[in-house]
Design brief:
The chain is about 40% helix and about 15% strand. It is α/β, with parallel strands linked by helices. Helix 18 links the parallel strand 11 (about 410-415) and strand 12.
Length: about 750
């Protein structure tokens, strides 16, 4: 284990460069700041994405933007030719300038009453984005004014984004800035050449903000987190400026992009911008790097770090320095980020998609890595997947309470690769026992552990949604993927979540090696049935990508695909161009699959033939049209003897009632329960009712240890009562689920 040490006197500056999300901070810098807190290391953090966004989309920002476009129009040597859409926006520039501050304030949650004005459709100017606008009254109803207004305001911002992209900066995007330059960049040439050009309009805004922040912080080390290709260009611009104007400041880069793409980096030009690039978990590598800069560690003692040694890109990994356990890294710390500036947008009219872009969520992790770690399309050879380490449920909920106290936010997104069901259960119990009010969602595997009862428990603890990979809805391909699930199992589990009131989103894949046209059509049919039966509420298709660190990429022959080239680039080397000689022409299905899904998510066209979605001939589905319905109607397995029994409800009111029928009289005990949705009651024999009242106190969630079904059966029989199975599996006990059994 690493020990506390005296470290740099100047603070560390942790930066997320533009752009990730507008509604909530990307958590990497908060994770690192939380760790540095445990070590007494002074760290300052900034999300330059939201800072640039606010500087651009304000009254002064738009005035400058319109002025810049007009100056380009007046350029005699190369006048700017406006599209019809851009010309319309420019003609309405005064209205945009007048309304922009109010719109941003509304999206920040500060001017909620503006929703009514926005929804009149006479307040904000509308350009091309509004041409594809859905029927808003149908989508949001007559009462969903806030969400409808957010959607309209988002389209308003997207119109301005299109203006910027057409006339100012072709790479602009709210979350994918210059992504095309960073994605699959085997060579650093395009990026390097772009960085030799004069600053773009957006670069100017970014660097102005960066320079102010650098003067405030005066760091000795700047750490740039680059989670996605869309952050890469701006991180390089930041690093370039720091190198040119703050030569005494060292620059390090880490994050998801480096971890997946730069593991075979060899281009020395990259180190004109960064001094160090660290891989995988950043806590131990950065602590050692700080000690190195403080003169307390030699270069050869660095951990998982690229740097230049005698002009050569060199990877240094001191294996004697161990990583920190998840229980040792501290609680994420969002201090210093402008939490009140983030923007809640609704781009797509879908409740699950809005979770990614609407509202500010505290990000947490239940476990490091993936407990399954077998999917053949996934980078399971990399540390962030293969090194599985769960955190104790009590510590997770401690961190939730700490974040609530610090941020005032009660919403949490668990960003695990796949949250373990057993740990989710323990976290849910801990939340309920502590009586804290939270709403949360997580990524999961659709495995059979998610029983009806577990889903009800998760819902009671504040779980509102789950997302998980169905991938290809074909049992042959799921087996080839080594997903460990079947389509029928996904249907049952999704039904359990949906019945509990937990929204379900599925990640879908097309184009997996050897996938046939028939399997693609059958997969779409399965997805149609999942929506038709109400077991899915949201989904997204993506085309299979072969990556260097996945089983498919490491052993393509086994999966009957061929690499286009065996050459390893000097820069990014994760995505691999490949050919699938035995499968379909996968890319041509993309538009049709997405069009069908869009309609299914809106519960329309579910009865249309699948041929409707494609402009070319496709075969009819070979699967029956009731496969999913049959799967979810199958009887679930009975509870096992070792299953734990938990009571979440209140103590009932009881009354002995006289019953009579055809001259016979008998007594029953009426137990009346109050729930949030109203009362319900059950009638049982008085002796069994007395026993049940006693057992309710023993199975309360606050009692430890929790009783097993086997122990309850033994208690029942010890009380001299008979036919436990008949009593427990009958209608009264099934009704008890309404009250929290």
């Amino acid at each position: 284990m690493l020990l506390n040490r005296t470290l740099l006197s100047a603070p560390i500056f942790l930066i997320t460069p533009p752009f990730t999300q507008l509604n909530t901070p990307y958590p990497a810098t908060a994770y690192l700041k939380g760790f540095f807190n445990t070590k007494g290391i002074s760290a300052v953090q900034a999300d330059l994405g939201i800072e640039v966004t606010i500087a651009l989309f304000c009254k002064e920002g738009l005035e400058n933007l319109f002025k810049s476009i007009e100056e380009k129009q007046l350029n005699k040597t190369a006048p700017l030719l406006l599209s019809e859409n851009s010309a319309r926006i420019l003609a309405l520039k005064e209205v945009y300038v007048k309304t922009i501050d109010q719109v941003i304030s509304f999206l920040q949650g500060k001017s909620n009453t503006l929703a009514h004005l926005i929804c009149t459709r006479n307040f904000l100017p509308e350009a091309s984005r509004f041409e594809q606008l859905d029927n808003l009254n149908w989508a949001f109803g007559s009462m969903g004014k806030q969400d409808m207004a957010k959607h309209i305001a988002t389209m308003y911002l997207e119109d301005l984004s299109d203006l910027i992209k057409e006339n100012i900066d072709e790479h602009f995007g709210f979350s994918r800035y210059a992504e095309s330059l960073g994605r699959s960049a085997n060579s650093f040439d395009d990026l390097y050449n772009a960085l030799q050009n004069p600053f773009t309009y957006l670069d100017e805004i970014l660097i102005k903000i960066l320079d102010v922040r650098l003067k405030e912080v005066n760091p000795k080390l700047v750490c740039l987190s680059v989670p996605f290709p869309g952050n890469l260009y701006t991180s390089l611009r930041c690093a370039q400026w720091i190198k040119q104007h703050y030569p005494g400041t060292k620059v390090a880069m880490g994050g998801g992009f480096a971890n997946t793409e730069l593991r075979s980096l060899s281009d020395v030009r990259v180190f004109e911008f960064y001094d160090f690039i660290t891989l995988d978990d950043g806590e131990a590598p950065l602590e050692i790097l700080i000690e190195h800069l403080d003169g307390k560690k030699q270069q050869h003692e660095l951990k998982r770090c690229f740097t230049l040694v005698n002009g050569v890109v060199t990877y240094i990994n001191n294996t004697n320095c161990s990583d920190y356990k998840q229980g040792q890294v501290g609680t994420p710390d969002y201090d210093g980020l402008f939490l009140d500036k983030y923007i809640s947008a609704i781009e797509v009219i879908n409740p699950m998609h809005s979770l990614w872009s609407d509202g500010r969520w505290n990000k947490l992790t239940m476990a490091h890595g993936c407990y399954w770690g077998k999917c053949t399309f996934c980078d399971i050879s990399l540390d962030y997947i293969k090194s599985y380490e769960p955190i104790a449920a009590s510590l997770i909920v401690d961190r939730m309470e700490e974040l609530i106290a610090k941020t005032g936010e009660h919403g949490f997104h668990f960003v695990d690769e796949a949250a373990p069901p057993s740990l989710m259960k323990s976290v849910a119990i801990e939340i309920i026992k502590r009586k804290i009010v939270v709403s949360w969602w997580a990524n999961v595997r659709f495995e059979k552990s998610f029983t009806r009862d577990l889903c009800l428990l998760l819902k009671a603890a504040g779980c509102i949604a789950v997302s998980g990979g169905l991938e290809v809805a074909s049992d042959r391909l799921l087996d080839l993927i080594d997903k460990g699930i079947t389509v029928a199992q996904v249907a049952k589990v999704s039904k359990h979540f949906s019945d509990a009131g937990i929204m379900v989103h599925a990640y879908l894949m097309y184009g997996f090696p050897t996938q046939t046209v028939q399997e693609t059509v059958d997969s779409l049919e399965m997805v149609r049935q999942l929506f038709e039966t109400g077991t899915l509420q949201s989904a997204f298709w993506h085309l299979f990508t072969m990556t260097a660190h996945s089983p498919v990429g490491l052993n393509p022959e086994k999966y009957k695909v061929k690499k286009v080239t065996e050459e390893i680039g000097t820069f990014a080397n994760n995505d691999i161009e490949h050919i699938d000689p035995t499968g379909a022409d996968h890319e041509k299905f993309g538009e049709g699959l997405k069009k069908a899904l869009f309609n299914y998510m809106h519960s329309i066209c579910l009865d249309h033939p699948l041929q409707k979605w494609f402009e070319f001939k496709v075969p009819k589905p070979s699967v029956a049209n009731n496969v999913i319905l049959n799967a979810i109607n199958e009887t679930s397995l009975q509870h096992q003897p070792h299953s734990k029994v938990i009571w979440l409800g209140k103590t009932p009111q009881t009354e002995i009632v006289q019953k009579s029928k055809k001259g016979s009289k008998w007594e029953v005990m009426n137990l009346n329960f109050q729930t949030l949705q109203g009362p319900f009651s059950i009638n049982v024999e008085p002796a069994k009712g007395e026993w049940f009242l006693r057992i309710l106190s023993k199975i309360s969630i606050h009692q430890q240890p929790h009783q097993s079904l086997q122990a309850i059966k033994a208690d029942y029989e010890a009380a001299g009562l008979e036919d436990f199975e008949l009593f427990w599996d009958n209608k009264p006990m099934n009704t008890m689920r309404k009250g929290g059994l």
